[in-house]
Design goal:
The protein has 113 residues and is α/β, with parallel strands linked by helices. The chain has one domain: Glutaredoxin, CATH 3.40.30. It has helices at residues 10-19, 35-49, 67-77, 105-112, and strands at 4-6, 25-30, 57-62, 85-90, 93-99. The protein is globular and about 30 Å long.
Length: 113
């Protein structure tokens, strides 16, 4: 099972975005204080425990604890900040995003293959 790597600095964010040139990146922006986000986290985890895309990179940003990183991701990718939110990044560009109850294991399977 691929692991979700927590991104806690802008430097780590930049490095992860750079890696999206070689591999698709799924960023999950998660609020540890929100029950809706907890449900979305469960869906992402279910996807990762199922049949995930082994060629993708999975990044996790805690939006409260690492707010500057979360805001920088929204700015760099040109995606309105929401939480919870997943953003698919290819070649340092957001190509798909969704949020809240639309984050499901099935939606991730469809978009990531």
């Amino acid at each position: 099972m691929p692991a979700m790597t927590r991104i806690t600095s802008i430097e780590e964010l930049q490095n992860t975005l750079d890696a999206s040139v070689e591999q698709p990146l799924l960023l999950f922006k998660h609020s540890t204080r929100c029950p809706i986000s907890a449900g979305a986290h469960g869906q992402v985890t279910a996807y990762l425990h199922g049949h995930p895309n082994e060629n993708a990179i999975y990044g996790l940003i805690h939006v409260v604890e690492d707010r500057p990183v979360s805001l920088e991701a929204a700015s760099l990718l040109g995606v309105k900040h929401e939480s919870p939110q997943v953003i698919l990044v290819k070649n340092r560009k957001a190509v798909w995003d969704t949020s809240h109850s639309r984050i499901t294991a099935e939606a991730l399977k469809e978009i990531l293959g």
